[in-house]
């Protein structure tokens, strides 16, 4: 009976430092993320896309196919 009480007490006492370590690491991580400067990155936007308008070419193709069917 007393062995179970001692074992439970030691288990709880071993979990307390682990819990405190986890809390300390979370606090340290939170402080680090708020102190870092978040500088915006320069993003270059191209005004000319490097691809074709697929829907526009598909619509042209359908129009020419419909005209070919009518003849």
UniProtKB/TrEMBL annotation:
This is Phosphatidylglycerol--prolipoprotein diacylglyceryl transferase. Residues 32-71 are annotated as: Disordered. Keywords: Membrane, Transferase, Transmembrane, Transmembrane helix. The chain crosses the membrane at residues 6-25. It comes from the Eukaryota. Residues 41-51 have a biased composition (Acidic residues). GO terms for molecular function: transferase activity.
């Amino acid at each position: 009976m007393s062995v179970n009480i001692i074992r439970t007490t030691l288990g709880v006492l071993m979990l307390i430092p682990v819990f405190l370590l986890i809390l300390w690491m979370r606090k340290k991580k939170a402080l680090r993320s708020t102190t870092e400067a978040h500088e915006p990155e320069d993003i270059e936007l191209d005004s000319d896309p490097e691809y074709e308008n697929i829907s526009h070419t598909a619509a042209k193709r359908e129009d020419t196919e419909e005209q070919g069917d009518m003849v």
